[in-house]
Inverse folding.
């Protein structure tokens, strides 16, 4: 019998600290998280440290962070909201989807490109 995936030693719901709502403003699952230069305090939990370390190279969305940390998205939202409130993370709303492209503009662009030598 092959062993299954390793179980997490600390249940994911403990990341929320028993709360049912985040402490700060609610974040979207696709919100972009960016690490600031602030030092992580000594009393920060292991999950908070892992999230800060994950964001050292650059920005990720909440969903991507959840996947890397192997945490539920809801727990990652709590963690990110708490870290943003303490100034360790910056948050940005999700990038909006592209709007409808003006077909006449694209046609004029194509005509202009075809007229180049």
């Amino acid at each position: 019998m092959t062993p299954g995936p390793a179980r997490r030693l600390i249940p994911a719901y403990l990341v929320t600290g028993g709360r049912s709502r985040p402490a700060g403003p609610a974040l979207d699952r696709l919100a972009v998280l960016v690490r600031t230069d602030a030092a992580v305090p000594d009393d920060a939990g292991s999950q908070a440290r892992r999230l800060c370390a994950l964001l050292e190279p650059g920005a990720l969305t909440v969903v991507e962070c959840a996947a890397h940390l192997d945490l539920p998205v809801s727990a990652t939202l709590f963690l990110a909201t708490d870290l943003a409130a303490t100034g360790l993370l910056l948050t940005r709303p999700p990038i909006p989807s592209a709007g409808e492209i003006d077909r006449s503009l694209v046609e004029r662009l194509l005509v202009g490109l075809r007229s180049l030598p």
User: Anything to note?
Assistant: Residues 12-115 form a domain with the Arc Repressor Mutant, subunit A fold (CATH 1.10.10). The mean pLDDT is 84. The CA atoms of residues 107 and 113 lie 10 Å apart. The chain is about 35% helix and 10% strand.
